[in-house]
């Protein structure tokens, strides 16, 4: 199986801790989708999401990860996992325009809130992972310009920023 990862799962080393067979194929683009922070989180912030658009010029960049289908339940079990995310089939392209049929996490409609912002540490985390993954600089810069808010839980904020080396 192949996962198109566009947020935290782009850190293939960390992802492989729960999906041991995970191997990075490379970076890829997903046309006619936009990246946004609108997936409702339990901590009154938003998390990354992708949404389909009508424009082929809209593109989400991410990492293609191949893994053994038997390990899918290690990170996704819709019967027991109430996170408001679902896996959907997507068609994406690598740098050489090779087509990949993959799956990507997409927020379910009831889990979307366009009025919440991501916390500063999460916003920064996505940028750091995107840079480390080798996504285009212009795309990472676009994410860096998206709105965010300071986490009011200073202890959590400090801990998360420290993990990022900031």
Description:
By secondary structure, the protein is α+β, with helices and mostly antiparallel strands. The chain is 22% helix and 33% strand. The chain has helices at 12-15, 120-133, 137-144, 154-163; strands at residues 2-5, 23-31, 33-40, 46-52, 59-66, 85-94, 99-107. Helix 2 (120-133) packs antiparallel against helix 3 (137-144). The N and C termini lie far apart (35 Å). The mean pLDDT is 93.
- State the separation between the terminal residues, measured CA to CA: 35 Å
The helix/strand class is alpha+beta
**Helix count?**
4
Strand order of the largest sheet: 1-5-2-6-7
Task: Report mean pLDDT, rounded to a whole number.
Answer: 93
Helical residue percent band: 10-25%
- The portion of residues forming beta strands comes to 25-35%
Rg, rounded, reads 15 Å
Care to count the β-strands? 7
The parts where pLDDT drops under 50 for at least 5 residues are none
Secondary-structure element sequence? EHEEEEEEHHH
Global morphology: globular
Largest sheet: 5 strands, antiparallel
What is the structure about, briefly put?
The chain is of the alpha+beta class and 166 residues long.
């Amino acid at each position: 199986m192949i996962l198109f990862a566009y947020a935290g799962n782009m850190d293939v080393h960390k992802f492989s801790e729960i999906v041991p067979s995970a191997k990075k194929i490379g970076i890829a683009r997903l046309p006619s989708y936009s990246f946004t922070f609108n997936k409702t989180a339990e901590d009154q912030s938003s998390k990354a999401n992708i949404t389909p658009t009508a424009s082929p010029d809209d593109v989400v960049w991410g990492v293609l990860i191949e893994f053994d289908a038997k390990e899918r339940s290690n990170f996704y079990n819709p019967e027991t996992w109430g996170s408001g995310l679902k896996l959907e089939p997507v068609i994406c392209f690598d740098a050489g325009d090779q087509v990949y049929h993959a799956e990507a996490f997409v927020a379910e409609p009831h889990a979307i809130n366009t009025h919440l912002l991501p916390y500063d540490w999460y916003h920064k985390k996505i940028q750091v992972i995107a840079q480390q993954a080798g996504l285009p600089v212009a795309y990472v810069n676009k994410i860096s310009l998206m709105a965010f808010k300071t986490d009011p839980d200073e202890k959590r904020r400090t801990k998360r920023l420290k993990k990022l080396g900031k």
